[in-house]
Design brief:
The protein is of the alpha+beta class. It is built from four helices and eight strands, in the order ββααβββαβαββ. It has an eight-stranded mixed sheet, with helices on both faces. Bound molecules: coenzyme A (COA).
Length: about 150
């Protein structure tokens, strides 16, 4: 277990292979237009060096984040982060983000977010991320992706 507190009603622990079906369900709910397919999620689950964390509440997977740090690079990327809608707004997203940053131990962490995703952008900004560049038409529907970055050390 990597982060837990008696003061909060969820814990953040490593996700395992057996979590894959729940992660897939969560991805579909959190990203109706961009959910990773089963193969991509399987590859994410099996690729060495990918950090996978889940948020658990009531013994159920309610949040998931994955991040990758290139072995020799000091830059880590948040690959995905999501919290089931009925569990959002309770600090779970923030906790997942801070814990994955901590465990990646990278000099800086980057992520891509839809320009219209004001809620996620607010979270990232409050957690210390700043916009660095824009990937034009990054998403399959043509929406731009904002690349945000946080320097950790
Ligand atoms: C983005 C997401 C992961 C945030 O998770 P969360 O558990 O709701 O976030 P938290 O409860 O930790 O809230 C953190 C911040 O999000 C914002 N936020 C949370 N709930 C909110 C709500 N109901 N309305 C508006 N903003 C809200 C606030 O800025 C909050 O800041 P605060 O902690 O200073 O109050 C979640 O909304 C989600 O899964 N969205 C769908 C998937 C997604 O867009 N992922 C990001 C892809 S880049």
């Amino acid at each position: 277990m990597c982060a837990d507190s008696p003061a909060r009603s969820f814990s953040i622990v490593r996700a395992r292979l057996f979590d894959l079906p729940a992660i897939r369900r969560l991805e579909r709910v959190c990203f109706p237009n961009d959910a990773y397919d089963a193969l991509t999620l399987l590859s994410l689950a099996l690729t060495p060096g990918v950090l996978r964390l889940k948020a658990v509440a009531n013994e159920k997977l309610v949040g998931f984040a994955a991040g990758e740090r290139q072995p020799r690079a000091s830059v880590g990327w948040i690959v995905t982060i999501g919290v089931l809608p009925e569990f959002q707004g309770r600090g779970i997203g923030r906790a997942l983000l801070l814990e994955i940053e901590r465990q990646m131990n990278a000099r800086c962490v980057r992520l891509t977010v839809r320009r219209s995703n004001t809620r996620a952008i607010a979270l990232y900004t409050r957690c210390g991320y700043r916009w660095v560049t824009t990937s034009r038409h990054y998403y399959h529907d043509g929406e731009d992706g904002l690349i945000m970055e946080k320097e950790l050390w």
